[in-house]
Write a structure and sequence with these properties.
about 210 residues; alpha/beta; DHBP synthase; 10-stranded mixed β-sheet; 6 helices
Length: about 210
């Protein structure tokens, strides 16, 4: 049975954030809110937690995962970012973007795109997500909470609870959040290429 935390969307309660981080550090799988809807997350290097997420979403080995980061200082540790790309990110994040970079050796191989050795990077603009990442002190492995047979991520935390209360360790209720896909920008080869137009303004990368 999963735990269910009602966290204030503007002023997340430190006690609940600390409890969520403790669960994550024990290898927990957590549902949490982002600026693009609800997502699943687990510790970066936890293979068993990642396998649980793959079972929940029925994902195959080709799925592209993302690292969700607290700020720009974590980027260079996990992604190969040149000066131009760093300026673009600094000027446009946090926000509803996923950026694709070549991964460094610090990224577990199972999270990299098997052919291109790339990884998605996100810096979300959501107070609960930011508080969670700040307290965690390192990125989380993340993927949108799109359940099998669905096209969009789940929006209602109470419906999420009904469907996943036996599959995850914690559901963080950050209110009703309709699916708002990120804009995906590929910066892995130097030039910016827009892969998908979503909520993030694509114009800075055109």
């Amino acid at each position: 049975m999963s735990q269910f935390f009602q966290v204030h969307p503007d002023n997340p309660q430190p006690r609940l954030i600390s409890q969520a981080v403790a669960l994550l550090r024990q290898g927990g799988v957590v549902v949490f809110p982002t600026d693009s809807g609800y997502a699943l997350a687990c510790p970066l290097g936890d293979k068993k937690a990642l396998e649980r997420i793959c079972r929940i979403r029925q994902l195959n080995d080709d799925h592209n995962f993302s690292l969700i980061c607290r700020d720009h200082s974590e980027l260079a540790h996990y992604a190969r970012v040149d000066n131009l790309a760093f300026r673009l990110l600094r000027n446009n994040t946090p926000g509803a973007y996923t950026f694709i970079f070549k991964g460094t050796k610090e990224v577990p191989r199972r999270l990299l795109n098997p052919k291109r050795k790339t990884i998605g990077i996100r810096i979300p603009d959501n107070n609960i997500a930011k508080a969670l990442l700040e307290a965690m002190g390192e990125p989380l492995m993340s993927t949108s909470l799109i359940l099998p047979g669905e096209q969009d991520s789940e929006a209602d935390p109470y419906e999420i609870r009904e469907r996943l209360e036996h599959a995850v360790d914690l559901i963080i209720d950050g209110g009703y959040l309709p699916s708002q896909p990120t804009t995906v920008v590929d910066l892995s080869d130097g030039d910016a290429q827009i892969v998908r137009v979503g909520c993030g303004d694509p114009s800075p990368f055109e």
